[in-house]
Batch of 3 targets.
Target 1
Amino acid sequence: MGKTQEHELITIAAANKETSAPEAADTINVVASSDASQNRGFEWRVQIALYILLVLVGQSAAVLLGRLYFDKGGNSKWMATLVQVAGFPALFPLYKFFRKEKTPNYTPTTHLSPLKIASVYTFFGLFLAAMCMLYSIGLKYMPVSTFSLICSSQLAFNALFALFINSQKFTSYIINSVVLLTISSTLLCFHSDSSLPKGVSRRQNVIGFICTVGCSAGYGLQLSLTQFAFQRLLRKKNSFESTVDMIVYPAIVASCAAVVGLFASGEWKTLNSEMHQFELGKLSYVMTLVWTALMWQLYSIGMTGLINKMSSLFSNAVATLGLPIVPVLAVIFFHDAMDGIKVVAMLLAIWGFVSYGYQQYLDHYKLGHVLYEDNASSL
C-alpha cells in the first residue's frame, strides 16, 4: 500500500478522536468499511487475481507471437508497433457491460477541464506509441532471452520513479522482491540461445539493445505517471470504467501515430508481399497479427487494473514475474531445450513475487489493526 493512502487513513482516524464518540465511531466505520470493500473484500481479491492472470497470459502470448511474426518473415517495425495498440475496439463492449458499476464518490486532487483531460490521454498515447516502437525494434534485433533480461530492468526504473512520483514506501520485503525478480530475468542472458537472431548484424543488435533499454526506462516512467494520473487527475478512481478509459483513449492516439508512421516510412507498400511470403501462409499471417493485438489488450487491462487498484510497482512486479515464463512456453510451443538456468529463474521470480505479496498482506493487516484500535478507543 502506498505511503500516501496509509497516511491519509491514519490522519482521519486521529482527527476523529477530537470529535464526539458517536461521530468518531461513525466516521471510522465509514472509512474502515470503504477500505475493506476496496482492499480486503472477496470481490477485490478476485479482481486482483484476474488482473494478474491477464498480465501473465497476455504478456507471454504477445511476446511469443511477436517473435513468431519476425521469425517467419514479418519485417515491418511499424506494423509490429500498431498491433500492440490497435486492439482497443475489442474493449468497447466492456463499457456497456460495466455501465451500471457502482463506485464510491471520489474527487481528484486537481480538477481538470475536459480539454486538459484530453491532453493527458493524448500525452499518454504519444508516449505509448514511442515505447511500442522501441519495443518492436528491440524484439526484432535481439534474442528473446537477452531481450527479457533487459526488459527486467524496467522494474528498477519503475522503483526509482515510484519513489519520487508516487511516494512509494520501500521495505525490506519490497527491496527483496525487486532484487529477486531482476536476478531471475538476468539469469536468462546466460542461456545458450543468446546468439544473434538469423539475419541480424552486430550493428543492428546494438541498436536493439539501446532501444530496449530506452523502452524499459520509458515504460517504468509511464507506469508511475499512470498511477499519478489515477490518484491526482482523473475521476472515477478504482472503477473499471476508468481502467478501460486509460487503455482506450491513449490507444486511439497511439494507433493514429503508428498508422502515420506506417505510411510515412513507406512500409505499407511491402505488407502485401510480406503476407504472401510469410512462411506459415497468408491466413496464419493475419491471425498472428490479430491474436497479437488481442493479447496486448488483455495485458493492458491487467496492468492498468493493477495500477488502479494497487500501485505501479506492484503491476511491474507481476509483469517481471511473467518474463521467465516466456522461455518455458518456448519449450512447449517452439521445442526449445529446458535447462537448470530456466528453472532457477522461474523459482526466483516466484520467490520475489511472494515476497512482494507478503508485504501487501502486512500493510493491509497493519492498517486494519490501526483502524480497529481507534474505533475501540472512541467508544
Target 2
Amino acid sequence: MARIVGGPVQRRAQGWDGGEDGSESSGGIAAATCVRVYAIIRVSILNYFPASADDSRSAAESLGHTRLQGASATISKQNTMEDPWQECMDYAVTIAKKAGTVVCEALKAEMAVMVKSCPTDLVTETDQKVEKIIISSIKEKFPSHSFIGEESVAAGAGSTLSDNPTWIIDPIDGTTNFVHKFPFVAVSIGFAVNKKLEFGVVYSCVEDKMYTGRKGKGAFCNGQKLQVSGQKDITQSLILTEVGSSRNPDVVKVMFSNMERLLCIPIHGIRAVGTAAVNMCLVATGGADAYYEIGIHCWDMAAAAVIVTEAGGVVIDATGGPFDLMSRRIITASSSVIAERIAKELQIIPLERDDGEKED
C-alpha cells in the first residue's frame, strides 16, 4: 500500500500557507501579511474618502496596490536568495509537463524506431525531439547552466559532471515501453550543483503522476507527500529490478543469478516496470521496498534518487558503498538494513563509468 500522507494542498485549503515540505515558510508568512495589510489599507481608504471623491479614492487605492506589488517583489527576491534553485525546480516541473504531453501524443501515432549500442537499446525520433525541447527551453532561461542528456551523449556529447549547475535529463525513461505502447514511460529531470543533487522531477506521463523531490524539503506526487514503507525485514519485502539491454549470455546469466539469490532468501517477490525512474518512485511511495539495477546511467537515476531520499529512503551503490551517480549501478530501499542485505547478495558486473573515469 502506498504511503502518501496529507500534503500542502490540504493545508492551504484550510487557510494555512506553509512551505512544500510542510513547514511554515518565511515567504508564506510574509505574503499572507502583505495581503492582510492591503485589506486594511483598502478599507481605510474606502472609509476616509467619500463616495463622491472617486478620483482621489481611486488614486489612493492605486498607491496601496503599487506598494503591495513592491512588497511582493521584495518577498520573491528574498525567497530566491534563501533557495536559489527553487525557480529551477518550478521550471523543471513546467517543462516536464510540456514534454510529457509530446510523449503522450506520440504514443497515438506510428513511430520510427532506431537502435543505439545494440539491437535492444532503442531510440525514437520522439526521444530526440523531447530532449531538444527540454534543453533548448532551459538554455533560454538559464544560459550559463550545463547539461547531460541521454540522446546528446549518444550523439557524442560528453557526460562529465562538473561543479556548474547541471541538468541531467532522460527525455523518455522507458523507451522500450514507449515503442510497445506499454503504459509506463517517464520524463526525468535531475539537477546538480557542485556535483551534489539538489532536486529531481519525474513525470510518469501516461499515469499523469508528477513526482518531485527537493533536497531538505520532502518528496511529493501530485502534491501529496511521499513516505517509504520503512520495511526492515527483507523476507517481507517486494523488490524491483530490470535486466537491462545487454543480451550478452554471461551478463544475462549474472542478472538472473542475482535475482535467484534474492528470491531464495526468501522475499515476497520481484517486479519490473521497465523504467528506472518510475521503479525508484514506487519505492518512494511505499509501493515497493527496494529497487536495484546494474548497467543503467546517470540520467536514469539522478532525479528519482532525490525523490527516494526525500521520502525517507536510502540510496547506495550496488557494492554497498556510498551512492555514486556516475557508477552505473544503484540500490534504493526503504531502509539501510534492506539495502545492505541486497548488496551482499549481488554479483557486480564490470562496466565503464558514465564519466569515463577508472574504477578504484
Target 3
Amino acid sequence: MCAGLRAAALGALAREQGGRAVSAGRLPSGVALIVPKTRSGLHKCLALTLDCVVTGEIGALILVAALWGGTNPFLKRGTEGLEQVRRKSQPIQLLAEMKFLCLNYKYVVPFALNQCGSLVYYLTLASADLTLAVPFCNSLALMFTLATGKVLGEAIGGARAALGMVLTALGVALSSRKRRGR
C-alpha cells in the first residue's frame, strides 16, 4: 500500500512542479512543506506517504533488533565446546577455532542471521535518523536478547533485568517522541 501511495505522490509532485522529474527512490526532504495547502488532496497524500516511509523504517529497525538480539543467545550456545580446542601454536590454535566454528551449524546459522540483521541495518541507515535508529536498535536488541535468553532457560537477572528493560523502553519512547515533535 505504501509503495502505491509513494508512486502516486511522486507523480502528483512531478505534475505540481511543472513536470520536472522527481526521483522515484526517495521523496525530497521537507516535501510536505513545499506543497501548497490549497491542494489538500496532494498534501494529505504526501503526508501519508511520509508516514509510510517512517513506518517502514521502524519496521526495519525492529527486524534488525530481533535478528541481532534473538541470535545472541544462540551464538553463545554455538560456541560451547570451543574451550576444548587446544593446539600447540597460536596460529594453529586460531585456525582450529575457526574450523570448529565454521563447521558448527549451531554457530553458523545464528551468525548468518545476525549478519543479515547488520545488512538490513546498513540499508536502513541510509534514510533513517541516526539519533533515533542507533539507540532504538541497540536497546531493542538488548531486550530481544534478554527475552530469547529467558525462553531458552538462561538466568537473566530477575526483577532487576525486567526493570532495566522497562526503563530502556521508556527512554527510547521518550527520545523518539521528543525527536518527532521537532
